[in-house]
Structures are given as structure tokens and as C-alpha cells.
Amino acid sequence: MANLTEILAGIGALIVGSGTIGAIAFGLFKVLGEKWLNAKFEERLAEYKHAQQKEIEQLRFRINTLMDRTTKLHQHEFDVLPEAWSRLNDAFGHTGAVVSPVQTYPDLNRMSEDHVNEYLKKTALQEWEKAELMTQTDRTEFFRKRIFWYRLSDARAACREHHTYLKKSGIFIPADVRDKFYELDTLMWDALGEQETNERMEQIPRMQEKIGVFRKRGPELLKALEQQVQTRLWNSQSIEP
User: Of 69, 58, 83, which Cα lies nearest the Cα of 161?
Assistant: First the structure.
């Protein structure tokens, strides 16, 4: 009986002891488990923050790159537009003068030889042309025919400068604005070509189809383009990437 009591007492002690060990183990597990979970959470949180920061930096880089590119494009546009407009007006003025129905020339037939010679010094005529002019019966008509080709050459040179500049730099001009530049470019070349044919072929009556389109459509288109250019240069709200 004593042995049984001792055995039972031992089992009870073991149970009590096991319970104590279990409680201690559970406590340790709880503490360590919380630390492990916290560590894992902090690790994941740090990874998430790093990923978010990386994504934000990439987005900031893309935005800065886009803004930088847009700013540079706008700067190019602001540089190109005034120059293109200036060249267009030079070409338009030269063309208008060549195809104008009203042409004025000095009456060389009424001038003395000294006066004629003095006047010819200021013209584009070559020396041999000046000498030939002095032998003519109708000096005024000879001068008119000769000087036409110089004026035509000047007009075409101005148109060529405008056209070349537009080809090289027109990429920085918005399409709707650039189209009007090209439309005027075509009107000028067509009008000059028709006027050259009139003069070369001594066309009577003079062909006026393309010249007429230039005279009618040209000023309207130039005015509309002027408003667009002013809007692009002065109204910042109109500027879009």
C-alpha cells in the first residue's frame, strides 16, 4: 500500500511538474513567437516601404524626365516660331512686290545720262547691263525687263530661306500652325512661278490664276497664322505637352 501511495505521489508530482514545464514552454513560445512575428512584420514592412520608395522614385524620375523634355520642346518652339514668322514675312513681302499689278519704275528716258548713271549705281544691274542700257532707245523698258529677274531672284531666295528653315525646324511647331506656314509657302512659290512664265513668254493677257489665289488667300491666311503664333507665344494656357 505504501509503495502504491508513493507511486501515486510521484505521478502527481510528475503531472504537476509537467504542467509547470508546459506553462513555462508556452510562456517562452508566446514571448519568442511575438518577437518572431514582430521581426517578420518589421521585415515585411521594411521591404514594402523599400518597394514603395523605389516605385515613387521611378515615378518621380519619369515625371521629371517628361517635364524636362516638355520644357525643352517648348523652348525650341519659342525659338523657332519667331524666326519662322520673320522669314515668312520677308518672303511674303518680296513675293507680293513681284506679282503686284502695280509696278513702279523711274522714267529713265527723261533723265540725263549723268542722272541715269548715278541711279544705276544703286541697282543690282551688272556693269555690262548698265552699258547696254545706255545704248537703248527705250531705257525705261529695258530697265524694267532686266530688273524683274533680279527682283524675282530676291523673292525666290527669301522663299527658299523660309522653306529650308521650315523643313529643318518645323518639327518644333505644332502641326496645325505648321500647316499654315506650308500653305503660304506653296502659294508664294506658285505665284512666283506663274509670274515668271508671264514675263518669260511675254504672256498677253497675263495669267492670273495662281497669282490671284495668292493675293486673295495669302493675306487672310497670314493674318490667321499671326493670331496663332501670338497665341502660342503669349498665352501660356494654350501650351500643352
Answer: 83
